[in-house]
Structure formats: structure tokens, C-alpha cells
Amino acid sequence: MRNFAKNLTRRKNATAVIEDYREDGNIQGTNLVRNLQFRDLVAFGIAAIIGAGIFSTIGNASAAGGPGVSLLFIFTAIACGFSALCYAQFASTIPVSGSAYTYAYASFGEFVAWIIGWDLLMEYAIGNIAVAISWSDYFTAVLRGVGLGMPEYLTMDFLSASRGFHEAQTLLAQGRALSSFPTHLQEAFLAWQNAPSLAGFKLVADIPALGITALITYLVYIGIKESKRTANLLVLLKLIVILLVITVGAFYVNTDNWTPFAPNGLAGIMKGVSAVFFAYIGFDAISTTAEECENPQRDLPRAMIFTLVICTVLYVVLALVLTGMVPFGELAVGDPLAYVFSRVNLDAMAGIVAVSAVVAMASVLLVFQYGQPRIWMAMSRDGLLPSAFSRIHPKHKTPAFATIVTGFVVAIPALFMNLTEVTDLTSIGTLFAFVLVCGGILLLEEKQKAATAAHKGFRVPYINGRYVLPLLVLTTVVLLYRFRAAEVSAFFSLSGGWESFQHKLPLLGFIGIAGMLTVLTCIRKLSLIPVLGLLTNLYLMTELGLTNWTRFLSWLALGLVVYFAYGYRNSKLHQPQ
């Protein structure tokens, strides 16, 4: 039993990880091609972050939080900023593929590394599914705009069609006309009603989502140079369009729409946390490129910080422009940027936005499809997954088998899944990765102080949290009781039974962890930035609801079955030297 527990925590320290892939003094053990420079990394980051978040999910977030959602973008950026600094130190210390998985292996050990690797596979796959679905929505809208519409049952996922049809039936039974329904309900009703059946099963599938996934997977398969050039071009195009949207939209802003600034209070602002955070997960993808960077120790940290700052400014300004152009309640649509310009009778701009969104979200899919196979590859090289996943194509120099598998993992669910079903799950997975990366920095500083101090690359600035963190916690408690006393009392009330109490479990867990971490920070003088990163990301996880936690924990439970059935025994650290 003691050996079993010891094996779960076996670690590959930073030196061992690098030595595994060092050859003749250069990290090139996988034969991947090193040709990414700083500007390419920034382009990759912007390509991943500026996509579905701006062109799709920002609408629902703004509808829930009003103009105040701009504050949520800032708060989320701060939370991501803490994490980005921790990522930057790891990327500088361990410049190999694998992202948070590799970092967890070096700090927490194999078992936690497996959990975060399994989590990353879900995060990237589901994130790509969401982007493919969103891309399909814009693509079909553009086709309809030029008179080339496809049948609804070939452009909508199965879940949306099924649910929309039954909701429409309920409204029809109440005597309402189909023409009075929202557009998405009309399309869902027609898709389900007109779809052919096979053995009683409605053949409804999102064919455009399948097509774009296949195309992007092929591009990633044939090489990093092609992916880089495509990403750079698409990023330039989308930045031009976003700046055009902001400039033109500013002339149509009605400042009365900004009052009230937070119409649904803090709860309304935080309701959009999953949509907003989904918009930020792209900088994680930058760290998967470590083995294809010309100078990863220098360029990776800088690229992460630059990307986060640029994208935050764009998101905040755009949120204010959107909520200024139309009343916030109208923004709960799948294509908010195109909608607001149609609303102010600028149909030409709406068309430009719709076409650019098709291009922009293709770039997001490109970066995510690029990153995920490298997670598979890193886990496979450590023996936790079959060796086929780390096989490098002799001509294209890409993880060929892993890339093909990634294509199937994204394309098939994109045919049938709903956008809402996947964005929340992606957010909780990303936040979990950020929590562990921040915790990993704390652990490294405790266990390897000498090595950390001697490290010449980027380091998270050390700020003694002994006095600052307790002050922040105390201030938060005082403000809550000053302005939210009734809500705090209701939260700690035992009325409502288990049905009410179970939804409080995530936040209660956060409160307990925050208390313990505050005590540890006072005793051990922990570094403030990773502590704040851990706490802010953990708090954002509590805002995602019990249903998402249940799905997330179910996915991790499945991962444990795979680990103990295969990874534990086949790990290279388990094999005799």
C-alpha cells in the first residue's frame, strides 16, 4: 500500500523532463520543427482568444449582466493574469510540450498530472466542439444571406433541434403562431419536422461543423509552417474587422443604454462567467507550442502576457460598444455583432461581421486543434497513453495519429451537441487547470527553493502574502456583510433541505480552502500572486453550478478508470531502470 501511494506521487522534476528530450545540448527529442517566433506566438494566442468569445458567447453574457459585464471581463482577465504569470514561469523552466500536464508532473506528481492531462483533453476537445458549432451558425447565416440556404436539419445539432421542437410544440398548443416564435425556435421546429427518419431516429446533424473540423485537422496534420502562416493571416483579418466594429459602432452608442450599469446586480454579472471565461482560455494553447519555438524560455512568457493584455482591452471596449448600441436584453443571440448592426440598419456592416466571423472562428479552431494532439503526445511519451499518440510523421513532423484522433473526437460530437452544453464544461476544465498550475508554482517554491532561486528564466515576482492576503480576506468579509448581509445570511441558512444545500457545496468548499490557504500563507510566507491565482480561479469554478461540477467529476472518474487500467502500469516511471 505504501508503494502504491508512493507511485501515485512519483515526479519528473524540471531537469529530468528536459533531459528526456535533450539531444546534443538542444531540446529536440521529438523531432518537431522549431520555427515559431514571438510574433507567431502572440498571433496564436490572439487567434485562440479572439473568436467564439467575441463573435458568439459575449452576447449571452451581456444579456445577463448588462454593461457591467465589462467588469467581469476585467475580473476574469486579472484571474487569468495570475495564472498566466504562473504558466510563464513553468514555460520558461520546462520548455517542452504538454502545457499544464507537464507542469503538474514536475510539481504534484504522476497522479495529479494524469488528472490534469485528462482534464485538458476534455477542455480542448469540448472547446473545439463549441467553436465548430459557432462557426457553423455564422457560416449558414452567410449562406442564407446570399440565397444559398441549406436545409435546417443539415445545419443544426440534434439536441437543439429536439429541444426547440418540443418547446415550439408547447407554444403552438397555447395558440401562438409559428411566425411569432424567436428565429432559433422556428429553425429548430422546421429542422425536426422536415428531417428524414431512419428506424424512428431523426437524422439531424450539423454538417458544416463536421466540414470545418475536417479541413482544419488536415491543415494541422500537414505541418506547423502551414498552420502558422494561416493563423497569422486570419488574426490580421479579424483584428482589422474588430477595430472596424468598435470604430463604427462607437457612433451609434446611446449612453442611456448603460443605465443601469448592472441591471441584475452582481448575480447577473457573474451569471456570464462561463461564457466570459470561455473567451480567455486560448493563452493556455500557447504553452503547447514549447517544442516548436525558436526561443521558448524568452518568448513564451512574453507572448502570454502580451496576448492577455491585448485581448482584455478589446473585450472590454467591445462589450461597452455592444451594450451601448442596443438594450442589453436583446443581445441573447448567437451572432451579437452582426445583430447590433442589423438593429441600427447597417446591413452592410452586419454582412462584413458575419463573413469575418467565419474566418475568425476558423483560426480559433486551428489553434485548439493544434494544441490538443500535443497533450496526447506528451502523455503518450510518459507511457500513460499508447505509444501511437506520440508517433511523429516522418515528412510533416507532426504527431500524426494524435491529430487524426483529435479530428474524430471533435467532429463527431459537433454533429449532435448543443453550444450551451459544452461551453460551461470547457470553462470548469480550464479553471481547474489554472488552479493546479498556480498550486504547482507554490509547491515548486516549497520543494525546490534552491533550484527555483537559481533559475535564470522568467519567475513569478515574489510578494510575501503573510500580511496582504489576510487583509484582502478581511476586507471581502466586511464588504459582504456591509452590502450583502441578507444574501450571506440566506446562504448559511439550513432552510430548504438537501435540495437547496447541495447547490451550496462548491462555494462552501471554496470557503474552507480559502481559510486553510490563508493560514498556510501566514505560516509559510507563501508567494501572493500564485495564491491569488489559485483562489480567484477556484471561486470562478464555484459560479458554474452543481450540474457542471457533476459532469466534470464524472469525466475525471472515467479518467481514473483509464489511468488504473493502463497508465499506472505502463508509466515510464513505473518501468525498471
Features:
577 residues, mainly alpha, Amino acid/polyamine transporter I, two-stranded antiparallel sheet, globular
Summarize the structure.
This protein folds into three domains: about 1-145 and about 210-450, Amino acid/polyamine transporter I; about 160-205, no CATH class; about 450-570, no CATH class.
Descriptive notes:
Strand 3 and strand 4 (201-202) form a beta hairpin. The protein folds into 3 domains: 2-146 and 208-449, Amino acid/polyamine transporter I, CATH 1.20.1740; 158-204, no CATH class; 450-570, no CATH class. The chain has helices at residues 2-8, 14-20, 38-49, 52-65, 69-93, 99-107, 110-145, 158-173, 183-194, 207-222, 224-250, 265-271, 273-278, 283-286, 296-325, 336-343, 347-381, 400-416, 419-447, 449-454, 465-483, 485-492, 497-501, 505-524, 528-542, 545-570; strands spanning 22-23, 26-27, 197-198, 201-202. The chain is built from 26 helices and 4 strands. Helix 3 (38-49) packs across helix 11 (224-250) and helix 10 (207-222) packs across helix 17. A two-stranded antiparallel sheet has the order 1-2. A two-stranded antiparallel sheet has the order 3-4. It has 577 residues and is an all-alpha fold. The model is unreliable at 23-30 (pLDDT under 50). The chain is globular, with a radius of gyration of 24 Å.
